[in-house]
Structures are given as structure tokens and as C-alpha cells.
Amino acid sequence: EMRRYLTKESSEDPKLRELISLLIYWINEELADLRIVVRNLQEDLYDGQVLQMLMEKLAGIR
């Protein structure tokens, strides 16, 4: 299995930063009723708990 990571140059790309900001905004809107706030994708999604809550909400489980 081959894994790819963002380079430092890529992480500074304005388009990527905008995409990340929009994704954080969308996640926060979806999880607002659960009082979950994401500020950093890498840190806040690391252990999978926030991602699990998001998937459950989108699937209508919660």
C-alpha cells in the first residue's frame, strides 16, 4: 500500500487552505447540534471520534 502526504508547499496553497476552511465550516454546521467544534482537521479527526459522529449523523443513525 502506497501512502501520499501533502508537501509543505502544497499545504501553503491558497486553494487548499480555502478547501480546508470550507470543509471545517461544513463539518461544524453538521455537528452543531451535538456541540462538536472542529478547529483543525488533522488534530480533531485524528482519533476518528468526530468522523464517526459525522458519519452517524449523515447516515441518520443519530
UniProtKB/TrEMBL annotation:
<dbReference type="GO" id="GO:0005737">
    <property type="term" value="C:cytoplasm"/>
</dbReference>
<dbReference type="GO" id="GO:0015629">
    <property type="term" value="C:actin cytoskeleton"/>
</dbReference>
<keyword id="KW-0009">Actin-binding</keyword>
<keyword id="KW-0963">Cytoplasm</keyword>
<dbReference type="InterPro" id="IPR001715">
    <property type="entry name" value="CH_dom"/>
</dbReference>
<keyword id="KW-0677">Repeat</keyword>
<keyword id="KW-0130">Cell adhesion</keyword>
<dbReference type="GO" id="GO:0034446">
    <property type="term" value="P:substrate adhesion-dependent cell spreading"/>
</dbReference>
<dbReference type="Pfam" id="PF00307">
    <property type="entry name" value="CH"/>
</dbReference>
<dbReference type="GO" id="GO:0003779">
    <property type="term" value="F:actin binding"/>
</dbReference>
<dbReference type="GO" id="GO:0030036">
    <property type="term" value="P:actin cytoskeleton organization"/>
</dbReference>
<dbReference type="GO" id="GO:0071963">
    <property type="term" value="P:establishment or maintenance of cell polarity regulating cell shape"/>
</dbReference>
<comment type="similarity">
    <text>Belongs to the parvin family.</text>
</comment>
<dbReference type="InterPro" id="IPR036872">
    <property type="entry name" value="CH_dom_sf"/>
</dbReference>
<protein>
    <recommendedName>
        <fullName>Calponin-homology (CH) domain-containing protein</fullName>
    </recommendedName>
</protein>
<keyword id="KW-0206">Cytoskeleton</keyword>
<dbReference type="InterPro" id="IPR028433">
    <property type="entry name" value="Parvin"/>
</dbReference>
<feature type="domain" description="Calponin-homology (CH)">
    <location>
        <begin position="22"/>
        <end position="59"/>
    </location>
</feature>
<dbReference type="GO" id="GO:0030031">
    <property type="term" value="P:cell projection assembly"/>
</dbReference>
<dbReference type="GO" id="GO:0005925">
    <property type="term" value="C:focal adhesion"/>
</dbReference>
